[in-house]
Design brief:
Elements: H1 9-17, H2 19-31, H3 33-39, H4 45-72, H5 81-99, H6 107-133, H7 139-167, H8 175-200, H9 215-224, H10 226-256, H11 263-288, H12 290-306, H13 316-352, H14 357-385, H15 396-406, H16 408-422, H17 428-444
Helix pairs in contact: 1-7, 1-8, 2-7, 2-8, 3-4, 4-6, 4-14, 5-6, 5-8, 6-14, 7-8, 7-11, 7-13, 10-13, 10-14, 10-15, 10-16, 11-12, 11-13, 12-13, 12-16, 13-14, 13-17, 14-15
Length: 454
C-alpha cells in the first residue's frame, strides 16, 4: 500500500489514543449518568429519560451543521485537527459541569447540560472520526484503523471501570463518587492524547476539494446513497436495542440479581475480554467481510441478552460467564459500523463525484446519539410506569418490565438489525470495483472535478 492508503503503526496508535479518554466519558454517559441523576440528584426516571430524548431534536439541527462546517473550512494543516484543538478545552469544561452537578440540581440544569454538552461532543467526534476515515481508502485497512481506535476505546473503558475497583469501596460508594472519579481521569488524560494525536498523525483531508452545494442538495445525495441508508438504518436499530440494555444493566445487576458490589468487576472483565477479541474479529472479517461478521455478532449478542433472564439471584458465576460471552461477541458492534460507513462514502464519491466525510460522520453521530437517547427515553419512563425503585419493594409488574428491558426486548431488536446487516449490498468485491473505477476517474480528471458515475 502507498503512503496515502496506509498509516504507520505509530501514527495509528497516536490517532487511536484519543479514543481512550473519550470512552471514559461515553461509558458513564450511558451507564452511570442517567441513573445518577434519577436516584441521587433526585429527578424522576421519566424526567431523566424524556430530557435525554428531547435533546436529540437539538442534535438534529447542530450535528449536520458541524459536519458541514468541518468539511467546508480549509486550513493550511488540514480540516480536522483545528476543530479538535479548539473544541477540546470546551469539552473538558462541559464534562466537569455535566458529571459533577451541584446538590439539588434541577431538571432545568440537566436540560442545559445536555443541550450544551452534546454539540461540543459532536465538534470533537465528527472531525475525529472523519480524520480516521481519511487516513486510508483501502477496504481492509479501514477495518484496521477502526480496530486500533476501538481497542483504545475499550482500554479507556476498562481503565475507567477498573480504577474504581481499587480506589472506591464498592459497598459504600455512590454513583456520584464513581462518576466523579471518571471525570477526573478524563480531565487528566484527554489533553495529553489530543496533543499526541495532533503531533504524530497526519491530516490528509486537505488534499480534497469540496464543491459548494446547498445543505438540501447534500441531504438529497445522502438519501440517494442506498448503502448508507441501509447501514444507517441498521445501526440505529442496533444502538437502540443495545442502548436499552446499557441503560438498565446497572439497575438490573443491583436490584434484580443482587450483585451491586460486583457490577464494576463484571463490566471490567467483559471489556478485558473484548479487547483481546478485537484482533480476532478483524481477522475473521478478512474472510467473511465486515457486514457478515457484524451480523453474526449481533445475533450472538441477542442470544447472550436472552441469557440474563435465566441467571439466579446472587449467582456471580452465572453472571460472570454471561459477561465473558458478551465481551467476546460485542466488540464488533463498536468496530465495524464506522468502517462500513467509510465504504459507503466511496460509493457516494463514485456516484456523485464527491462526498463530504464530515457530514456522513455527523449523521452517524446523530444516529448513535438519537438511538441511545431514545433507548433511555423509553426504558426509564417504562420503569417509572411499572413502579420500579432501586432497592425498594417492587411488585411482579416492576420485575417483569425490568427483565424484559434488560433481556428479551433488546435481543429481539438486535435480531431484526442482524437481518438488515446481512442484506447490506456493498461487500468487499463491489467495493474493490468502486475503488478501481475511482482510480481510473482520477487519472482522467483533475482533482476535485465532480463528474457523474460511469
Amino acid at each position: 500500500m502507498d503512503r496515502e492508503n496506509k498509516a504507520g503503526a505509530s501514527s495509528l496508535a497516536a490517532y487511536a489514543s484519543m479514543a481512550a479518554p473519550l470512552s471514559i466519558v461515553f461509558t458513564p454517559l450511558i451507564i452511570f449518568l442517567p441513573p445518577m441523576y434519577a436516584t441521587e440528584v433526585g429527578l424522576s426516571l421519566t424526567t431523566v429519560g424524556l430530557l435525554f430524548l428531547l435533546a436529540r431534536f437539538w442534535d438534529a439541527v447542530t450535528d449536520p451543521i458541524v459536519g458541514r462546517l468541518c468539511d467546508r473550512w480549509q486550513f493550511s494543516f488540514g480540516r480536522r485537527k483545528v476543530w479538535i484543538l479548539c473544541a477540546a478545552p470546551c469539552l473538558m469544561l462541559m464534562v466537569w459541569l455535566f458529571f459533577r452537578p451541584p446538590e439539588g440540581a434541577s431538571a432545568v440544569y440537566l436540560l442545559c447540560m445536555i443541550l450544551i454538552f452534546y454539540p461540543v461532543w459532536t465538534t470533537v467526534m465528527i472531525p475525529y472520526q472523519s480524520w480516521g476515515i481519511e487516513l486510508s481508502q483501502n477496504y481492509q485497512q479501514r477495518t484496521r484503523i477502526a480496530g486500533f481506535r476501538e481497542i483504545a476505546s475499550m482500554i479507556g473503558t476498562t481503565a475507567v471501570l477498573g480504577v474504581p475497583l481499587f480506589f472506591i469501596d464498592a459497598g459504600t460508594a455512590t454513583k456520584r463518587d464513581v462518576v466523579g472519579l471518571m471525570c477526573g481521569m478524563f480531565l487528566v488524560f484527554f489533553p495529553l492524547t489530543v496533543l499526541l494525536a495532533l503531533w504524530k498523525t497526519p491530516d490528509s483531508s486537505r488534499r480534497e476539494v469540496v464543491p459548494r452545494v446547498s445543505m438540501g442538495q447534500l441531504l438529497q445525495v445522502l438519501w440517494a446513497n442506498r448503502p448508507f441508508v441501509a447501514i444507517g438504518s441498521a445501526y440505529f436499530i442496533v444502538q437502540f436495542g443495545y442502548g436499552m440494555y446499557l441503560s438498565v444493566i446497572q439497575l438490573f445487576i443491583i436490584s434484580a440479581l443482587g450483585l451491586g458490589k460486583k457490577f464494576l468487576l463484571l463490566v471490567f472483565i467483559k471489556h478485558i475480554v473484548a479487547i483481546l477479541c478485537v484482533p480476532v474479529w478483524i481477522h475473521i472479517s478478512r474472510r467473511l467481510g465486515k457486514h457478515i461478521t457484524y451480523g453474526v455478532c449481533l445475533m450472538a449478542t441477542a442470544i447472550a441478552l436472552v441469557g440474563f433472564g435465566s441467571i439466579e439471584h446472587g449467582n456471580f458465576t452465572q453472571a460472570l460467564t454471561l459477561f465473558i460471552f458478551l465481551g467476546i461477541v460485542t466488540a464488533p458492534i463498536l468496530v465495524f459500523p464506522p468502517a462500513i460507513v467509510a465504504d459507503t462514502i466511496d460509493y457516494a464519491r463514485w456516484k456523485n463525484g464527491s462526498a463530504e466525510t464530515g457530514l456522513y460522520m455527523a449523521l452517524l453521530q446523530l444516529i448513535n446519539k438519537s438511538a441511545l437517547a431514545l433507548a433511555i427515553g423509553v426504558t426509564f419512563p417504562l420503569l417509572d410506569w411499572a413502579g420500579f425503585t432501586e432497592g425498594g419493594n417492587n411488585d411482579a409488574l416492576a420485575w417483569n418490565v425490568m427483565h424484559a428491558l434488560a433481556s428479551w426486548v433488546p435481543a429481539l431488536i438486535l435480531l431484526v438489525a442482524a437481518l438488515l446487516v446481512w442484506r447490506f449490498p456493498l461487500n468487499r468485491v463491489r467495493h474493490h470495483v468502486i475503488q478501481r473505477r475511482l482510480a481510473l476517474r482520477a487519472q482522467r480528471n483533475p482533482p476535485g472535478l465532480a463528474v457523474s458515475a460511469e
